[in-house]
């Protein structure tokens, strides 16, 4: 395969759902997938993603993305079909006329991004996700009591990033629901705040933008502080383990800037 483009075995698997393929091109996102493409075909236009069909995180995330789709169709592209064989598992979504959003200061996409996040948080947690408790930051909390602050009853996307929040002439959509969970309502707005700072906003400006999310405005600031510290520990840990991935250290620095803004006089 060439940079996530499907191989012939994968194409044979999906052809009953696509029909003859007229055009196939790569995308700029979704690097956690083993196969990824925008496909124009006899049966329509699809965004197709696939993973190797073997036990583990990638397969589990694709299963979860398939299961959650019915619940998030108001904010996400519709899953048109899914299929698998002994080697591959694949999902075929409707193809959107939209582009990755821009998070930098002055971006015209920011109101749509914040509005989309608010709409996501208004979706009731579906029954199938009741036991999908948010645990991704638990290992980086100060203790179990702090980790419990990240629990809650809100549907969490968990990866609020420019490539996953698409904006087009007809609206905005959240994609890549690879690991939705049930957690504290301030989690996704906090992730957005961190991403906005990384994109060049001051911490104060980032917090001003996410304050349009009711869940952020109502949250206990101490809980957000704990989440910010957990993110700092997480990115420092990952930067230490993957020093060649320089973006991890950049995110650790971003988290530190945010903490310094929120707690300018520690102790």
From TrEMBL:
<dbReference type="InterPro" id="IPR011009">
    <property type="entry name" value="Kinase-like_dom_sf"/>
</dbReference>
<protein>
    <recommendedName>
        <fullName>Aminoglycoside phosphotransferase</fullName>
    </recommendedName>
</protein>
